[in-house]
């Protein structure tokens, strides 16, 4: 479909299809939080998807971002005393050569198998039978050692065969930094897995000038395989932008096309046979779904595109100038505010506030990507994030107050600080943040 005219805030020199509104520059002071961008869809509204962040099941290993050490902030370790007691009972004579969360491969190599359903003494969420004698056997050589008790082997389901503790997954905490962009994703404190994903990359435009790309996706937890959906969407959108921007496609059009491509990638997951959902068999009936927000910085423009309630913010280096939110949520709360039915404070205080009205997925009501381009009058950074962050810093001014002043020079530090803020606030949801300095730096290309 052609780009929606309501989704455009064009910068000078670009006339999007079906657009009647004149172009405008990024305001120098006191900007409108979303410029003249699109509001949430008017009625009739689609049936909202549940907000992201509910408990799920095992996540696949990502290929587009490198993992950090699992013992990082955001991973809930068991009490030190319990670990020490296990060590005293039977210390492991050697360390496994692989990371403690690489359970599936090492379990296959060692021949260990997961306990049958219903017969295991250590079902997820349960504790060992205190009346039964406990034996701490030295794991066979090559078996992954439990990250908690450091004595038991890890079964194929990712649980310790001795203490029953769930092992950290590679996707629980992800970090990536390239020249001109950095991103951090964390599972948070309350959820079983990380259903967020990101893709960051750098490229060159047709005129040879550098461009930086950041894509952040948040899986819809009420749908099947939200972790797969977010990974598929982020990777598909990133690849689409890397292909179109060097050919001279305007960043706004490139983002529109990338979101459509991401939607098709998520739709294709619905055609695959769903995996068993032992805790909720009805979840297999829902198509995988996620939200998406992306930013492209290059050619003197800051361009954003989105579907759902993941957001992009502008934070100028000059902190005396106001920060601004660049996106408008596809959510129940945004609809209430746009239709003058509630104030913003009333809408976001409602239990239905985070029910989304736009998403990527086979059961989406209608996919209408929103895009907007701005021409900032000074340097700054773009913060691209999921609601796991903005739930703890909703207003642009609040987010700017948390972001370090040197975020443009140290984007990874800035992303870590924002993720840490969300975790310190409670970490009730997965949280993912990408920090993109503006203007794009003059150096090299790459992807992650």
Percent of residues in beta strands: 15-25%
What structural category arises from helix and sheet content? alpha+beta
Number of contiguous helices: 9
Estimate percent helicity.
Answer: 10-25%
CATH topology of the largest domain: Phosphatase 2c, domain 1
- Per CATH, the superfamily of the largest domain is PPM-type phosphatase domain
Level-1 CATH class name of the largest domain: Alpha Beta
Mean pLDDT: 75
Strand tally: 13
Second rung of CATH, namely the architecture of the largest domain: 4-Layer Sandwich
Shape: globular
Spatial separation of the terminal alpha carbons: 30 Å
Low-confidence stretches: 1-47, 53-136
Indicate how many domains the architecture comprises.
Answer: 2
Q: How would a crystallographer describe the biggest sheet?
A: 7 strands, antiparallel
Radius of gyration (CA) equals 23 Å
Order of helices and strands: HHEEEEHHEEEEHHEEEHHHEE
Keywords:
448 residues; alpha+beta; Phosphatase 2c, domain 1; seven-stranded antiparallel beta sheet; six-stranded antiparallel beta sheet; 9 helices
Give the SSE map.
Blueprint: H1 80-89, H2 103-110, E1 173-178, E2 181-186, E3 196-204, E4 210-219, H3 226-244, H4 251-270, E5 289-298, E6 301-307, E7 311-316, E8 324-325, H5 332-338, H6 344-349, E9 360-361, E10 370-374, E11 380-385, H7 387-390, H8 396-402, H9 411-424, E12 431-438, E13 446-447
Antiparallel strand pairs: 1-2, 2-12, 3-4, 3-13, 4-5, 5-6, 5-9, 6-10, 7-8, 7-11, 11-12
Helix pairs in contact: 3-4
């Amino acid at each position: 479909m052609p780009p929606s005219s309501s989704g455009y805030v064009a910068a000078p020199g670009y006339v999007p299809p079906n657009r009647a509104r004149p172009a405008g520059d990024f305001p120098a002071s006191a900007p409108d939080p979303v410029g003249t961008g699109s509001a949430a869809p008017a009625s009739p509204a689609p049936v909202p998807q549940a907000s992201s962040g509910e408990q799920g099941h095992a996540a696949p290993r990502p290929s587009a971002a490198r993992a950090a050490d699992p013992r990082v902030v955001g991973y809930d370790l068991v009490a030190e005393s319990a670990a020490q007691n296990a060590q005293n009972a039977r210390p492991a004579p050697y360390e496994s050569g692989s990371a403690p969360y690489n359970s599936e491969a090492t379990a296959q190599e060692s021949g260990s198998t997961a306990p049958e359903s219903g017969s295991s003494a250590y079902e997820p969420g349960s504790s060992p039978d205190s009346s039964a004698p406990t034996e701490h056997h030295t794991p066979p050589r090559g078996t992954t050692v439990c990250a908690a008790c450091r004595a038991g082997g890890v079964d194929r389901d990712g649980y310790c065969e001795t203490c029953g503790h769930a092992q950290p997954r590679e996707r629980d905490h992800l970090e990536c930094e390239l020249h001109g962009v950095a991103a951090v994703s964390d599972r948070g404190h309350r959820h079983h897995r990380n259903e967020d994903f990101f893709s960051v990359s750098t490229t060159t435009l047709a005129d040879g000038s550098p461009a930086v790309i950041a894509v952040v996706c948040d899986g819809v937890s009420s749908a099947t395989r939200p972790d797969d959906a977010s990974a598929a969407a982020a990777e598909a959108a990133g690849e689409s932008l890397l292909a179109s921007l060097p050919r001279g496609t305007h960043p706004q059009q490139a983002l529109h096309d990338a979101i459509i491509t991401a939607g098709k990638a998520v739709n294709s997951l619905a055609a695959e046979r769903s995996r068993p959902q032992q805790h909720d068999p009805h979840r297999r009936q829902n198509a995988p779904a996620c939200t998406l927000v992306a930013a492209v910085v290059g050619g003197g423009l800051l361009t954003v595109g989105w579907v759902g309630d993941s957001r992009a913010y502008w934070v100028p280096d000059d902190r005396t100038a106001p920060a601004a939110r660049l996106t408008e949520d596809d959510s129940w709360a945004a609809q209430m505010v746009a239709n003058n039915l509630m104030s913003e404070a009333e809408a976001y205080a409602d239990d239905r506030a985070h029910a989304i009205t736009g998403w990527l997925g086979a059961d989406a009501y209608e996919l209408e990507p929103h895009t907007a381009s701005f021409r900032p009058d000074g340097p700054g950074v773009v913060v691209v994030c999921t609601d796991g962050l903005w739930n703890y810093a909703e207003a642009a001014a609040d987010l700017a107050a948390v972001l370090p002043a040197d975020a443009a020079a140290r984007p990874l530090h800035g992303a870590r600080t924002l993720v840490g803020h969300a975790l310190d606030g409670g970490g009730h949801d997965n949280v993912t943040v990408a920090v993109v300095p503006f203007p794009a730096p003059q150096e090299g290309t790459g992807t992650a």
